[in-house]
Amino acid sequence: MSNVSLGILISGRGSNMEAIIKACQANQIKATVTVVISDKKDAKGIAIAKALGITTFVLDINDFSTKQDYEADICRILKGCSVDLVCLAGYMKIVGETILAAFKNRVINIHPSLLPAFKGLNAQKQALDYGVKFAGCSVHYVNDVLDGGPLILQDIVEVSDDDTEQTLSKKILKKEHIIYPRAIQIVLDRLSKREG
Ligand code: GRF
Fold it and tell me: Is the pLDDT of residue 2 over 80?
């Protein structure tokens, strides 16, 4: 695949988005982030993306009569940017059928736990509450099962006795920034093999 195009969906801080954009700019991912879409107008990640020279859009679901209409507009933007792979990076909505059908096997996500453990919100707190000795992060394909699609890459961190939700989240986030760009390149290599 030549001129590979990535689209990133965010809702907040955007640190994974930033890691992906920088990995593309450093040619560690053989692709370009062509668009960042946020569902929240106050997402910190928007300013970061703009500063890195990326086109951004904010789409508020409340401006649409249905989730399908909202997602159709996201797809229109993504297709308009010829996006090959959609990367969720702290996007806080469940991706629905409209996006999944338009980008079959081309939507991926990062989750701050060793899936299949601790799906859903506050994964790091769930891990601490459970008392696990190792935690981590997972990049996976997105399907209609929440945090349930096939795994692409994982990494682990050791949980120490004095870890808090904050310290553990920070340790995991560091690993996220490493594995997400790697996972993207793995997926792109698979796509190009399939097409080649
Ligand atoms: C990360 O912990 C990611 O695993 C989860 O949401 C958080 C997003 O952080 N899905 P950021 O916006 O990438 O900084």
Answer: no
**Ligand 1, atom 8: nearest CA belongs to which residue?**
90
Go through the domains of the chain in sequence order and give each one's CATH number: 5-195 (3.40.50.170)
In whole angstroms, give the CA distance from residue 168 to residue 179.
Answer: 17
Q: Which residues pair with 138 in a beta bridge?
A: 111, 154
DSSP 8-state class, residue 113: S
Confirm whether 111 is a catalytic residue: yes
Say whether pLDDT at 75 is over 80.
yes
Q: Which residues 6+ apart lie within 8 Å of 167 measured at CB?
A: none
Angle (nearest 5°) at CA 19 between 16 and 25: 145
pLDDT tens, residue by residue, 148-170: 999 999 999 999 999 999 999 99
What is the pTM for the complete model shown? 0.97
Ligand 1 first shell, C-beta below 6 A: 12-17, 89-90, 110-112, 173, 176
Separation between Cα atoms, residue 145 and residue 66, nearest integer Å: 21
What is the pLDDT averaged over residues 124-132? 98
- How many beta carbons lie within 10 A of that of residue 195, not counting itself? 8
State the distance from the centre of ligand 1 to the C-alpha of 80, rounded, in angstroms.
26
Please tell me the residue having the least CA distance from ligand 1 atom 14: 15
